[in-house]
Amino acid sequence: MNLTTVSKRISIAACCLLPLAAVSTAVAMDQSGPYQVEAHWKIGGEGGWDYVTADPHAHLLYIAHETRVDIVDSRSGKVVGGITGLKHTHGIALDNQDKHGYISDGGGNVVVVFDRHTFKTVASIPAGTNPDGIAFEPVTKTVWAFNGRSSNVTVIDAKTLKVAATIQLPGKPEFPVADGKGVIFDNIESKNSIVRLDAKTLQLTATWPLTDCESPSGLAIDQVHRRLFSVCDNKKMAVTDANSGKSLATPTIGDGPDAAGFDPAHQLAFSSNGDGTLTVVNTASGKFDVVQDLTTARGARTMTVDTATGRIYLVTAEFGPRPAATAENPRPRPAIVPGSFTVLVVGRK
């Protein structure tokens, strides 16, 4: 996702008012579903934001916040550090050795490497144009930075912190996931498809069309049952078999989604939506039924699942009035209220 002050899809989703019947239905599902909003943590600061990454073992959240990464204690909600000097952050990936983290700095066209104990920057590695989605692949110990404007992926050797390869993609990439066995998947937003890449051979091995899915962004994976969950702009979650590419289901989600998540302990998939909802999908039975549309907050469309606690963390801010439309800017974005940046904590009842 590419943010300046606020996501391009927030401007669409945030202006929509739910009809009374839809609101009543959402409230009813909120009361009967398994999740509730437990807390709001005011982080403050200015500017837009992008993805959130949880470190379950260190009890930390890494939040891409415009020109910095905020580091938050996931038990207390307190800011415990920050990585600054960045130009326009998008995503954060963590290695499996508790050593380094990797930030896609889209404004600088680099991947910034930091020490996870001192939070100090240790390297800045050139990538393609506007690196956005980013993932660590544990088998080959490589980092995959998907470049939104150059439509390719920069592969970095985590041992040497050098670029190992650049792989061309069939369109604009969005969020990636690793299957833990040497394969990377990534949504191709501009082609309504998903690609499969082999981390050992550094080759693109498949491109699968996504059924009934427009502009897929967030992606999550069930590694055990080999299922992929893509969230789409047409209010659908595309569920795909990770072995064959076959479409399994397209449950309805909220409007303006950007991030997806999966809780392996409870077999639930999530979509965080800009209309102020969190859609919860039951994957255990194979029917992929929506079990809850939890009301969250306007613009809370990026999220992470803490697999140690089952908590979900979303981020948003308060918005000012929308400026009047002009011929030059027919869809103006509402301004973010300075100091209002907030983490929402969602937990099971």
Whole-number count of domains: 1
Corresponding CATH superfamily: YVTN repeat-like/Quinoprotein amine dehydrogenase
Using the coordinates above, name the CATH class.
Answer: Mainly Beta
Count of helical regions: 2
Please name the CATH architecture.
Answer: 7 Propeller
Strand content range: over 45%
Helix content: under 10%
Tell me which oligomeric state these chains represent.
Answer: single chain
Radius of gyration: 19 Å
> How many beta-strand runs?
28
Q: Structural class per helix/strand content?
A: mainly beta
Q: Based on Cα principal axes, name the global outline.
A: globular
- The secondary-structure element order is HHEEEEEEEEEEEEEEEEEEEEEEEEEEEE
Distance between termini?
31 Å
For the report, how would you describe the main beta sheet? 4 strands, antiparallel
Mean pLDDT rating: 92
The CATH topology turns out to be: Methylamine Dehydrogenase, Chain H
How would you summarize the topology of this molecule?
Elements: H1 10-13, H2 20-32, E1 35-42, E2 52-55, E3 60-65, E4 68-73, E5 79-83, E6 89-94, E7 100-105, E8 110-115, E9 121-126, E10 131-137, E11 142-147, E12 152-157, E13 162-168, E14 173-178, E15 183-188, E16 193-198, E17 203-209, E18 219-222, E19 227-232, E20 236-241, E21 247-249, E22 257-263, E23 268-273, E24 277-282, E25 289-295, E26 302-305, E27 312-316, E28 342-348
Structure description:
The chain starts with 9 loop residues before the first helix and ends with a strand. It has a single domain (10-348), classed as Methylamine Dehydrogenase, Chain H (7 Propeller). It has helices at 10-13, 20-32, and strands at residues 35-42, 52-55, 60-65, 68-73, 79-83, 89-94, 100-105, 110-115, 121-126, 131-137, 142-147, 152-157, 162-168, 173-178, 183-188, 193-198, 203-209, 219-222, 227-232, 236-241, 247-249, 257-263, 268-273, 277-282, 289-295, 302-305, 312-316, 342-348. With 349 residues, it is mainly β. β19 and β20 (236-241) form a beta hairpin. The protein has two helices and 28 strands. The strands form seven sheets. The protein has a four-stranded antiparallel β-sheet, with no helix packed on it.
